[in-house]
Specification:
alpha+beta; Beta Polymerase, domain 2; 13 helices
């Protein structure tokens, strides 16, 4: 299969022709995809906002309202690729008890979110824009939305209580101060607890981190996503890594290996990303200090249930090593990255 790919575009092109090919085949198609996807996302967000109030179960049932629906994923970040984009939105519910470090996961899920999520599934299955809707977990749904072109768009919906009260402020010191209390609560939770219930609340920070990157970095991310969709997943049908993790790896390469230049060659950036995946993941360790301090990051990297190298801390969540859940597939990813580096395109690219 590798030799077949080597005879196909862009893998059989030279470095000089990559930019033009990328513009014609990735950028242009992605723009039209973004327009249609935004319409589907807007339909879904409107529907969720207009849902009638719900109630928790039990003798002390309380009214629950949709407080906010936050769009996320690659469309919102500006890193979309037509056949490899992750689309999601977070539904923040009022009336759900605030989480504390000693909250019991099972009680929280069964007593509050689970019955509400089931009601949302029933409602979405009857919506005119929905082809189908399925429950992934007690905290997540997957909606298959109809598109005007006849296609189907997959959108993940994540549910959470109003656990983190913050508004994004473009000041790192202020954001670190605002977020220090919830981060400490998460880091104080025992292993395999419900830190994950906090995580949907952090989606806007993940989005803002990627969205704030320069346009040429977003283009590089789109090329990496093209490789993921058209090469990596053609070689291996099992999902080996998600788009967000590849976004963070690409940003790391731009900042740490390329020195955050104002301008850079797309092919050179791509080769550097593949080289990291191929040869440098084993002992990898990195974090960002945009939203949490160095001290908080060090605490996160000491969590026994998550922190074994390679470590790449989520810039929005010091308790989450984004590489942890993909460790089983990292060997395969490295193998396929090395294979890609042997194609005519990558061999033609010289990195200083």
């Amino acid at each position: 299969m590798a030799s077949n790919f080597s005879r196909q575009e862009p893998w059989n092109l030279s470095q000089e022709n990559l930019q033009e090919w990328f513009q014609d085949n990735v950028e242009e198609g992605s723009r039209s995809f973004a327009v249609e996807s935004n319409k589907s996302m807007d339909d879904l967000v409107r529907f969720l906002h207009n849902m009638p109030d719900m109630k928790t179960k039990g003798p002390k049932a309380k009214p629950v309202k949709v407080k906010e629906v936050r769009k996320g994923g690659s469309i919102e970040k500006g890193t979309f690729y037509k056949d490899g984009s992750d689309l999601d939105c977070v539904v923040v519910l009022n009336g759900i008890p605030k989480l504390k470090a000693n909250t019991k996961t099972g009680k929280y899920r069964r007593g509050h979110l689970k019955p509400l999520v089931e009601k949302v599934v029933t409602a979405l299955q009857q919506a005119s824009f929905t082809a189908r809707c399925e429950k992934v977990s007690n905290l997540q749904l997957k909606v298959y939305a109809k598109q005007e072109t006849g296609g189907i768009l997959e959108i993940d919906i994540l549910f959470t209580g109003n656990n983190l009260d913050y508004n994004y402020i473009d000041d790192e010191v202020t954001m670190q101060r605002i977020l220090s209390t919830p981060y400490n609560t998460m880091l104080n939770m025992p292993p395999k607890s419900q830190r994950f219930i906090y995580q949907p609340c952090l989606t806007p920070l993940q989005t803002e981190f990627v969205k704030s990157q320069p346009g040429n970095v977003k283009s590089l991310i789109r090329l990496v996503k093209y490789w993921k969709a058209e090469y990596l997943h053609q070689r291996q049908t099992e999902k080996l890594i998600n788009s967000y993790t590849l976004e963070l790896i690409t940003i790391y390469v731009y900042e740490e290996e390329m020195g955050s230049p104002d301008r850079f060659d797309l092919g050179e950036g791509f080769k550097r990303v593949l080289s990291l995946l191929a040869y440098k993941l084993g002992g990898f360790q990195h974090y960002w200090d945009n939203f949490y301090s160095d001290e908080t990051a060090q605490r996160g990297m000491k969590l026994k249930d998550m922190m074994k190298r390679p470590i790449l801390l989520d810039p929005a969540d010091p308790s989450d090593n984004v590489l942890q859940r993909w460790k089983k597939g990292l060997g395969t990813i490295s193998e396929i990255a090395r294979e890609t580096l042997q194609t005519p395109l990558l061999r033609s690219i010289h990195v200083n």
